[in-house]
Amino acid sequence: MERPYIFCHMQVSLDGKIMGKFMDLPESKGSGKLFYDLAFGEDAHYKHQGWISGRTTTDDNFTHYKVPVLDELAAEVPAGDFFVESEHDKYYISFDRSGKLGWEKNTITYGKTTATVLEVLTEKVSNSYKAFLRDLNIPYIICGDESIDLDMVLEKLSRDFNMDLVMLGGGGVINWSFIQAGLCDEISFVVSPTADGSTETASVFDAMAGLTNDDPVAFTVKAVEVREDNAVWMRYTVNNAR
Ligand SMILES: NC(=O)c1ccc[n+]([C@@H]2O[C@H](COP(=O)([O-])OP(=O)(O)OC[C@H]3O[C@@H](n4cnc5c(N)ncnc54)[C@H](OP(=O)(O)O)[C@@H]3O)[C@@H](O)[C@H]2O)c1
């Protein structure tokens, strides 16, 4: 299968967390900046064409759990995927298997980066939600019947969007689904010299009942660098990548 190279890039606390109070400490700032610069900065190490995000990450950061207002009487949309011309050099690849996200426009802005939203849906998503996306000029690809077929997503990103480098950008649930499927090539963790010990917050990898299990996976060290402000950049290859 033709697919992009996938790297999982995350800012992580010393206790393996990806959100929470550790981020509020001034000692976390350096790792936050390094995280951004490596994948989104002007002289980025990873020059990717898009980043994949889980539905919770999108709601927490961009759509804020707004319920989309749908027209149940919308005319039947054409079958298949929906493409639009993008003005931006990156896509924000949003996993939304049921069509829940309350988008208000077809771009997101993260730091100095603006990206076109690309929704990844399944066949079970309603006609009215697809019509809602079309009204906002939000492109979508349909990958799978009830659950998202990860191979099909990557094949379409390669074939229809010419992507050869894609960031797997969290959270922990979506990261683990790609790793369990053998579809993540590299791990890039920017470790913050902070922790908060919370048992309530998302970890960098989280299995989710019905989606993934806890089959162990091994990694091989590629590089470790100590950077400014006690941030450590750790890279691994994923041993089960196929
Ligand atoms: N520190 C960092 O670098 C960083 C980076 C990214 C995110 N985060 C944080 O991580 C937190 C969220 O992480 P999380 O692990 O709870 O959630 P997540 O991975 O963002 O989202 C999980 C949801 O995404 C959908 N999903 C995931 N895998 C899927 C698959 N294989 N197929 C179809 N749908 C799939 C499911 O939603 P549905 O069932 O509703 O469709 C699932 O419940 C956020 O607070 C965010 O800010 C931190």
Automatic annotation (TrEMBL):
InterPro entries tied to this protein: DHFR-like_dom_sf, RibDG_C, Riboflavin_Biosynth_HTPR
Domain of life where this protein originates: Bacteria
Keywords assigned: NADP, Oxidoreductase
Involved pathway(s): Cofactor biosynthesis; riboflavin biosynthesis
Domain Bacterial bifunctional deaminase-reductase C-terminal: 4-208
Protein name: RibD family protein
Gene source species: Fundicoccus culcitae
